[in-house]
Amino acid sequence: MRTIFLTGGTGFIGRQLVEELLKEEVMIFLLVRSKSKATRVFQKKGFLNEAAMHFIEGDLTKPDLGLSDEDKERVLSTDVIIHAGGQMDIQATTQEATSVFLNGAKHISEFAKRIHQLKGLQQFIHVVGYMSPFDDHNSKVAIDVFKEGHDYLKIKNPYERTKFLADLYIRQQASAVGYPLSVINPPTVVGSSTTGSTEQVAGLGLLVESMRRGLMPVIPGGKGYKLPLIANDALAKFIVQVVKLEPSSIRTYTLVPDKPLDPDIDELLGVMSESMNMAAPKISVPLRFMKALMNSGLSKITRIPSDGLNFITNRTFSNDLPKKVMGADWFTKTSVMNFFPAVVADLDYRLMYPNNQHNHVFERTLIGNTVIHQIQGEGRPFILFHGLLSDGEDLFPLGLELHEQTGQPVWIPDLPGLGRSPFKHEKNLIDLYLNVVKELSGKAAQGAHWIGHSFGAVILLEALARECLDTKNTITLLQPPVTKKNHKSFNAPPLLNKWALKLATANSLERYLIGNGLFENIESIPKHYIAKVRSSFTSPRILNTTLQLNSFLSKNYQGVFTKVPGSNLHIIWGDQDRRYSAPVQLGKIDVVPYGHHFPISHPTETASYVLGN
């Protein structure tokens, strides 16, 4: 069994790497600042393996990494070192960056030397950014990086400069002592290909934040310039394969995709804009001019440091070595563009709700680029579609009740353009949502229990009308908004326009929710619901999608449904709704004494009505 000493194991890349390493016959010693915090991190992730993982308290910035004598002996027994430590902070000062990266490289290299002298170090793996100027051809630069390095590398940004000097220092030490070194150069790292979840918002998130604030009106660099990307699970799998190698020298693996697989920055921004339901920038500006603008004060407005543009490049990279390790088609199979829209939406969601805590009862996955929250179980799944002014998380309590009472699976999508799912332009807006029905129906081959609330109910009605769902499925409609009451005061609700939503206060939202009967009283509004709705409208994606769907519903779905095919239709109606009437033309209706949003305010009672209890 190989033993591995890993730095950065609790970071965005490191956590994914630990998950992949645990699939192998290895023992991992993780350098952490706090054992208790590290334990909580991996417990939340669901793969704390105390038999194969051991936390070692220490600090990269301290001599001997600040380890106890007992922990030093553990580290000196390891076969492989993987150095991926150091927080991503492009705005770090020279002193801060030197302490973490340069001093960290020195301290960990001292352990590598002692291990090699004691027993032979099988391999040192260093993870450093793809823009490092050092590779297998120019790594024998004979300078003292601590005394001469800052003058040698004419790079203004301390974060980049010290990371690259650490790269050179580790190469120098490996060459001098004689142990094998594998340097892995990933491009900008984004979230997992299975979820799109990107917890590290300091990278691509800077660009998403600027776009969502309307501060990305131009294309930096233009044609030929790229922002290469890699998924953290693809990177982790690659590192694990390198661990299995038996190298005898220094090798550099640059994980930048082939140019045809790597879209130009204008195409990338086009995909981002569509995902955010915004107009794409059209005008290209030379990168040098963009940096000058940033340095002149634009950085303070956009919150993107001028050095953040350094990740956009027109350089050509060689990736022959990674292809030899993973296969010639690896970059094609792992292309981030397959799920990039979901990454953009996830970052947008995180910027809206920076303190949101993920509900770990529900697992996240992607079908296409739509986020699906799932609970596993036996039997046919319950598939819940949310309405406007909400997302999939708002139906979690109802989903949990259904699962606990039946043991069956629960699938809750974030509908496109809402929650964590990206928007996508379709010729007919409803087709975007019917595609979700078709994709989920394909996954539920034996049929499902479909439940749609408000706009989600309209989607299911349209799916029935177009015969997208067959008789294997049962359908429950919760408050389908297809019959407006004949009151002029309700025809054009004053809150549902762009600036009213953007500037809405907690009090105005509360008045709207109660006045229109979405909730029957203040007490029925869930805690944090109003704050969440207000935050959601800081996102152009959610704001624009909400307005488009509200207009689409008003124009297309009033009095349209008089009868739909299928006898397995169950309608539940909250009679406190002040804008819509019960659609009696659709069939028998169970009436409940609640407001329009009763599946959100009364999940336990709703589950009982759905199940016929």
UniProtKB/TrEMBL annotation:
It holds the Pfam family Abhydrolase_6. Residues 383-607 form the AB hydrolase-1 domain. Transmembrane segments: none annotated. It comes from the Bacteria. Residues 6-239 form the Thioester reductase (TE) domain. This is Nucleoside-diphosphate-sugar epimerase/pimeloyl-ACP methyl ester carboxylesterase. It comes from Paenibacillus silagei. The lineage of its organism: Bacteria, Bacillati, Bacillota, Bacilli, Bacillales.
